[in-house]
Write a structure and sequence with these properties.
The structure is a homotetramer.
Chain A: E1 16-17, H1 18-35, H2 53-59, H3 61-85, E2 90-91, H4 93-107, H5 110-119, H6 126-154, H7 165-191, H8 193-212
Antiparallel strand pairs in A: 1-2
Helix pairs in contact in A: 1-3, 1-4, 3-5, 3-8, 4-6, 5-6, 6-7, 6-8, 7-8
Subcellular location (chains A, B, C, D): Membrane
Keywords (chains A, B, C, D): Ion channel, Ion transport, Membrane, Potassium, Potassium channel, Potassium transport, Transmembrane, Transmembrane helix, Transport
Membrane topology (chains A, B, C, D): Multi-pass membrane protein
């Protein structure tokens, strides 16, 4: 699979093929995106207290909103992860660690999602706290994704084709702009938790189209 | 894997092989179908209040019924998903999005399943509400599946062999008839939630045999 | 992969390669075996009432026992499932259904496991009820496994090499003897739930060695 | 895939390719590492009793600490598992069992993690008990990993290239030293549960670098 006939000495236990990295990462992405459903609670019949189920379910709208945004975010990051991995032919220590860091930020998402769903409409500062933690998780994921890109771009031997320096700079500039937007949503969390969540939905959709756009430009 | 020697310029990050799409989708299907078991509750020993465990378990029959139907539905949609993917050789932006939408409707199924299990035998309108939500989830899944088919059929370059227009029309007609049946179960949910669930079990079995039937007709 | 150059007409959407069946089944096995850990409860600190954590954990021994046996059973059935699939080159409608039935019995195992862990040391008939349901789940799994074997053995075109009739009969006889043992454990559940669980641990180990033994006999 | 044209008689149901073993193991690793997130609890709004969410979340720091260490440990063991499997070309009965034992110790990790998170700051001996159980789980994982190595090293026919006896001895010596360190953390658990957890974080990082180091030494 990862045969390197001209350099057998460099074949070490640490030289993973990207296939293995992707299989494990795909598993984590698939599980994290599916575990989100455990954040949707069925109202306790004994707790309806005269109101209808429809009303109790409607009252839970923050759960559905947070679920949808987190589902979209994980789905998009999965698409981007694969796009990045398709450029690489093997992984080294740096990329393994950067990838593990990315998986950490992805697999933790069900926690801030449930946190935000629970406190989105809370009175006082608790909604801001929950929203800021949600936004900070997304910032951490963006940072981990950028680190993974840097780990790949750092060593041309890991790639099928070296990325031209100009493209690396352009990509980092885009990551930087994205990072500033993400950081700004932490601030937004203190103004309007709901707006923060909506912005993350928009950012996910934007990144997806941006990511996929080159296919149309005939790159 | 997805080498396109005659068109290397069109090889972009967005050109996924179907193998990757299937691996991720398989993961989501496998997890969603297995998470259903968390909807089966073990009666609390302290809550038996003099009745036997056997009686308490028998009382939970809506949970087993909803579990079985949802397991069957996810199993059949997995079979159909693979049948559709086997026609394709690569995926583009449209198919990625349509597939993500389908996975959203599949991975959410444990929620309406638990909802229906909890309220199937409830008094008043709550059973109807729960049943209508369950049926609506199935409608959404059918719509997403049709959109995925259209996304593949739309662009012959995504397929191993272009689907003849007549076959597309026949398939859409069948999806349309299926869609009407599914929509009708939302109405049925307001008449009899149990009948609604039984109809979905029958529809799943019918679609499976219908799907598999061509193998017998020597297509 | 499953190219059939001499019979392209028989290539239908329903002709799955076993690779796909195995990938999905592997996912379900891996998830079911890992979800068992959710059946192990951490004692509530507020509920210790003066006793130590060590004592409270020791009191939960039925949970660990049931966890271990179920882990072993799913592990062994995974090994046997792969051994069976390695004989096949493709799957048809019958095998897909039989496999879905097997996955149903496997993915439900966390439920009877938690049931048995909760009621193994209960007073009166509830321990018997829980143990009988556990044993019945294993019987259902054995039946589903035998049906899958029959579905494969039925049609030599599904296999790499047809299984000699003598081997089919021998295998069915062994399945039959195993089935009688499994059925007997339902009866044993009413005598001693703990003995029932111990017998299932022994049966799993026996089947594993029996399964693997041919490797030593140079078959 | 695992065709052995010169020795078809030795092709038995028990001769797994390592690809299958890895796919199943990857699934279990991915699920166990992602299920850890279920150990992070969202504070109940009704239970805040006048304190802020930020304060309640900060109070839960043992959960985050235990989550991070367990995530790191499973991530590193996954890397090492793949490094070991990459040396092998097929698996036999011994390796299947040793691998199942390793998966048992990995998939159970969410339980001692939640246990430790719950009792890390408890008064009296309960924190020691929880910490000792956590450390003992890691010891068991180390033992299972060593057994898997021995099962592979035992039979050169399972490997791409036989491991030189000197390397086996060196590896076992390293496993032995590691084992002593791990055992020592059980003792440390009775002195300081927090130090025990910190040491496991350090050991995981050390093993990762140690494992990956040969890539730098041009082995």
């Amino acid at each position: 699979m990862t045969a390197e006939p001209d350099a057998p000495k460099h074949r070490t236990a640490a030289d993973f093929s990207t296939a293995r990295l992707e299989a494990f990462s795909d598993g984590v992405f698939a599980i994290a995106i599916t575990l989100l459903v455990l954040d949707l609670d069925v109202p306790d019949p004994a707790g309806l207290h005269g109101t209808t189920l429809a009303h109790a379910l409607a009252h839970q709208w923050p759960s559905y909103f947070a679920y949808l945004v987190s589902f979209l975010v994980i789905g998009i990051i999965w698409i981007n992860h694969h796009a990045m991995c398709s450029l690489a032919r093997r992984v080294d220590r740096r990329t393994l660690f950067a990838n593990l860091l990315l998986l950490l930020t992805v697999s933790v998402i069900p926690f801030p999602t449930r946190l935000l769903a629970t406190y989105l409409t809370a009175q006082g500062g608790d909604a801001h706290t929950a929203a800021a933690i949600y936004a900070a998780t997304m910032v951490a994921m963006g940072v981990a994704f950028s680190l993974l890109f840097l780990a790949f771009a750092h060593d041309a031997r890991l790639l099928h084709t070296a990325i031209p320096p100009g493209d690396v700079i352009r990509a980092l500039r885009r990551f930087g702009i994205g990072g500033v937007c993400y950081l700004a949503t932490i601030g937004l969390a203190y103004l309007s938790p709901i707006a923060m969540l909506a912005v993350h939905a928009l950012l996910a959709v934007y990144y997806c189209f941006d990511q996929l756009a080159p296919a149309r430009r005939g790159r």
